[in-house]
Amino acid sequence: MANKNFAVKNGLDVAGDATLTGDLTVLGADIKGPTGTTGLTLDQFGNVNVAGDLTISGNELYSGTGRIAYLVGTELELTGSLRIDGNTIKASDNATNITMTSNTLTTFAGDIKVTGNDIQNNQGLSNITLGSSLTQPSITVGTVRLNGVSGYVQTTTGALNLLGASTVTITDGIRLHSPTVIGSATYTPPTTPPLTVYSITSGSELVRGSTSASTNIPLYLVKDKTATARAVNDGVAIYSTFRNTTSDVTGAAWSTVCTDATAGSEDYDFTVRLMQNGAAIAEKFRVASTGDATIQGDVRVNGNDIQCSSGASTITMTSANTATTIRGNTIYLQDSASAAICGSFVSYSRQYGDFANLNTIVPAAANTAYAFALPTTNNANGISITSTSRITCSNPGNYNLQFSVQWENTDNGSDHNLYIWLRYNGVDVANTGGRITCVKNSSGIAAWNYIAAAAAANDYFELMYSVDDTAIQMPYIAASSPVPAIPSVILTMVPVGV
User: Fold this and answer.
1) Contact 208, 218 (CB under 8 A)
2) Residue 345 DSSP SS3
């Protein structure tokens, strides 16, 4: 039948091979096998239904545009993508093993077994490697290995081991945030600390100790297992680093610093360094090995009390900053050399006044109360003279008021009396009067002191006097070598307590 065109209307039986150079049109739509069983069915749309098995001896399947699959033994290799319109892939028992959603999630119903041990990214690089050993199973992600039997985490070079739940062994560095590496010889933190940081490559460990009974928090101890002897200024630090808009910034550091490396008598201080106004961290707090604390700044005591070792309050401050109480049987003020200080070396707002009258005082009438005028101020601070005679205190408190009055009796025939007393805020103070009997044709001085209590700021005192005869006067005596001038009245006032 080669090179012949023919049509068969009632069926065709071919005992041997048949070669067609043109098209084969099957009007009955079925192609049957030797037993008469339909093997292929063709519909009007060009679809082909295969009733039995399909054997491809050439091992390749093609579409109209090229090869789509290649058969190698029992394996099928797809040239392009595999599209599952039903979104599920089922096992031989018709159970769904893999379910896919529209480009968002793939769900595996059972376990995933990776016989090659590697899971790769889209560039063909192994991101996750599974250990094949049954006695030492592990997972390696990047440069970090998780060991499931020994219970440790380490880098692929064994740099970090977390042994069980109670011990941590550091054999190299711990990378907390690039480029910071703690414990390695290439330590380069964002802000270089002002103390030596030594390598601990020979080993350190973080040991879980007992639990604090009061807080129920496990206690941990950092052990340095390096054999190299330590030197002064060596130490260990914990840094608090954060990321700003452009770089890593160290905001704080807690450090232990060696101050004496002598074997058997080592000393270590504890320091806290903080960042202020964006500057490099600087030491703000230090506790020396002796227990002494140094603070670069102010100390605020919210409880208002500072206590001694027995728990007794030694210094008490008021919340309004109006008073500070210091308690003790003996209170010492000492300088930096532990020598006692006093006088002008003690700085505080001193209150004092030194006043005088440089005129002769002649009473206008007998048995009349007058206030001594004190128009001259020699030296004063916080105490002043107002309204000519009022000794005014700018602060409340107890004051020592001392005075001296020159007197003279000009009567040649009789003695007379001079009376002096204290007046407070315009009212005579009880039991403050004094009497001086001035002998005829004689002179003298009257002097004593009062403890004067001012209850409020700007309270005032006056030194009052009266005579029983105007023959009594208070003279001013001009200077006459070698004696300086003698004021008629001298008055001084200083505080003696609150």
Assistant:
1) yes
2) helix
